[in-house]
């Protein structure tokens, strides 16, 4: 995917992200659905790359933001992370997820693109996690 923003399914996810972030129950459902779907992926060869780890970091970051624990990120970037999770859990997108392994290719591309775009902020979050764990 050369330009993720050209993907109509991701654009739709971005438009819905704000409403989800504003609704605690819907956000918790999204985070749970993301975690459940990660468990499905763990059974495939996808776990051999950093895809699952990246998703887990995104989930933790969104959760910490929503709980008011972490504020070192701009709201538009949290919305981008929520959109990536929403795209990930939506079974019908550019490549439907029911197609074995191939169905995750577009999900992978979106998550990698968002993660790469926000790498600096995500690195700061990971550092914050380590510091608060001590």
UniProtKB/TrEMBL annotation:
<keyword id="KW-0812">Transmembrane</keyword>
<protein>
    <recommendedName>
        <fullName>DUF1232 domain-containing protein</fullName>
    </recommendedName>
</protein>
<dbReference type="GO" id="GO:0012505">
    <property type="term" value="C:endomembrane system"/>
</dbReference>
<dbReference type="Pfam" id="PF06803">
    <property type="entry name" value="DUF1232"/>
</dbReference>
<dbReference type="InterPro" id="IPR010652">
    <property type="entry name" value="DUF1232"/>
</dbReference>
<keyword id="KW-1133">Transmembrane helix</keyword>
<feature type="domain" description="DUF1232">
    <location>
        <begin position="78"/>
        <end position="113"/>
    </location>
</feature>
<keyword id="KW-0472">Membrane</keyword>
<feature type="transmembrane region" description="Helical">
    <location>
        <begin position="73"/>
        <end position="92"/>
    </location>
</feature>
């Amino acid at each position: 995917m050369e330009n993720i923003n050209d993907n109509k399914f991701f654009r739709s996810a971005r438009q819905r992200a704000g409403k989800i972030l504003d609704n605690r129950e819907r956000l918790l459902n999204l985070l749970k659905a993301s975690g459940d779907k990660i468990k499905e992926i763990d059974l495939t060869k996808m776990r051999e790359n950093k895809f699952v780890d990246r998703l887990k970091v995104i989930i933790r970051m969104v959760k910490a933001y929503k709980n008011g624990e972490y504020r070192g990120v701009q709201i538009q970037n949290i919305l981008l992370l929520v959109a990536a999770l929403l795209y990930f859990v939506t079974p019908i997108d550019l490549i439907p997820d029911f197609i074995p392994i191939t169905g995750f290719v577009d999900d992978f591309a979106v998550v990698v693109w968002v993660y790469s775009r926000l790498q600096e902020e995500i690195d700061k979050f990971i550092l914050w996690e380590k510091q608060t764990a001590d």
